[in-house]
Amino acid sequence: MEASGPLGGKVVLVAGATSASGEAVSRALVAAGATVLAVGTRPEALDTLALAVPGVDTRVCDLADRSAVAELAMRIHLKFGNVDGLVHLVGGWRGGGGIAGQTDDDWEFLERSFTTLRNTTRVLYDDLVASPAGRLAVVSSTAVDKPYAGGANYAAAKAAADAWTRAVAQGFAKEAPSAAAAIFVVKSLSGLEEQLAQWVVALWSAEATAINGVRQPLEPARMEG
């Protein structure tokens, strides 16, 4: 039986679900009636999430491994059918030290987050196109527009994810005008988790053409009124 609520019948995958933002988004989606597939790499953190958000379906998967993502999608299809939404929250900040201090270790960490976006969107793209209202949501950074030396690795990785998402949006515009890829831009996500959760849920009530490929600043002041 379909869950009640504005997102009843929708299947949404939340990547990076064990973060503070992942918990907030998962809770809001479940409350709106969606079937939420919360994905992470740490079983114990997913167990904690399942206790905090009753009704969420947790899945362990290394999203940086495309074959693992494809296997995850196959299992989801067998149990739930196609995915209607992908919320990509895999990330984290690394930096400092100016240009000369941008380390390979930091870059590998940040590049991995971008790889998870590439893998999940490539594997789930056909699902989102086939959905009556496919939605992709990512979190970008103000550093894309105003990069600084100490955060060069971070800004470059975020710029890549930003460009990739806008490319997905162009694909949606050509193949599925009812689908949309939305980009929420923040300086820091700390303290904005609940606002992000509200905006993610609201994506399904917005006209796809109004949000597809749009870089939307996410700030407390913009949530008021």
Q: What string, H for helix and E for strand, traces the elements in order? A: EHEHEHEHEHEHHE
CATH class: Alpha Beta
Name of the CATH homologous superfamily: NAD(P)-binding Rossmann-like Domain
Given helix and strand content, the structural type is alpha/beta
Shape: globular
Radius of gyration: 17 Å
Strand order of the largest sheet: 3-2-1-4-5-6-7
Distance N to C terminus: 36 Å
What does this structure look like?
With 225 residues, the chain is α/β, with parallel strands linked by helices. The chain has a single domain, classed as NAD(P)-binding Rossmann-like Domain (Rossmann fold). The protein is built from seven helices and seven strands. The chain has helices at 20-31, 43-52, 66-80, 104-130, 152-175, 193-202, 208-211, and strands at residues 11-15, 35-40, 57-60, 85-88, 135-141, 180-186, 215-217. It has a seven-stranded parallel sheet with strand order 3-2-1-4-5-6-7, with helices on both faces. The radius of gyration is 17 Å and the shape is globular. It starts with 10 loop residues before the first strand and ends in an 8-residue tail after the last strand. The model has no long low-confidence stretch (mean pLDDT 94).
Topology:
Elements: E1 11-15, H1 20-31, E2 35-40, H2 43-52, E3 57-60, H3 66-80, E4 85-88, H4 104-130, E5 135-141, H5 152-175, E6 180-186, H6 193-202, H7 208-211, E7 215-217
Parallel strand pairs: 1-2, 1-4, 2-3, 4-5, 5-6, 6-7
Helix pairs in contact: 1-6, 3-4, 4-5
Please name the defining characteristics of this protein.
single chain; 225 residues; alpha/beta; Rossmann fold; 45% helix
